[in-house]
Amino acid sequence: MIRVFDILFSMLGLIGLSPIMLLVWLLGWIDTRAPLFRQQRVGRNQQPFVLVKFRTMRPDTASVASHLADASAITSLGYFLRRTKLDELPQLWNVLIGDMSLVGPRPNLFNQLELIKERDALDIYNVRPGITGLAQVKDIDMSSPQLLAKTDAEMISNMSLANYFKYIFLTVAGKGQGDRVGF
User: Fold this and answer.
1) Distance from first CA to last CA of the chain, Å, rounded?
2) How far apart are CA 22 and CA 166, in angstroms?
3) How far is C-alpha 39 from the geometric centre of its chain's CA atoms?
4) What are phi and psi of 38, to 5 degrees?
5) If you count DSSP H runs as helices and E runs as strands, how many of each does the chain have, helices first?
6) Which of 106, 150, 151, 161 is most buried, judged by most C-beta within 10 A?
7) Where are the alpha helices (DSSP H) in 87-160?
8) Are 129 and 101 in contact (CB under 8 A)?
9) Any residues with CB less than 8 A from the CB of 165 and at least 6 apart, and which?
10) Could you give the CA distance from residue 69 to residue 74 in angstroms, rounded to a whole number?
11) Which pTM was predicted?
């Protein structure tokens, strides 16, 4: 049933939010000349997929977890996009095509070996990664691999339609700050 809501909401979001996404794309083009950010991430069953977001950092930024990135790499527009979570909107495409869910564990990079080990031990990769989830609304980011994996496991074991809508609502209402950047 959740997949049905993922498809419905991602289609509605892509259509309804397309004017905002076009504006952000244009501002991103002016800001970096590369408004979309594509990065290979670990998906369901540890299969790779290409995550799409609006770019918030300079194009030459190293491909590392956000908490390891240099905070000075974030552009002025990027600060705004991260604060408002508008950088996440292109992931609605990932949801629509089935790479992701609206709610699930945030997809990590393949070079985050400690997190992969912790998540693998708790079977986190048996579900689709998500745009938001329990860890995000609790401000737990990828800099705490054990805590993140434990929180992901808690979310998965308690997943229900009610919690699905709860996490979406809390995220849209502004709960959670997103991944920290820098040390």
Assistant:
1) 40
2) 28
3) 11
4) -120, 135
5) 8, 4
6) 106
7) 91-96, 113-121, 134-137, 145-157
8) yes
9) none
10) 9
11) 0.92
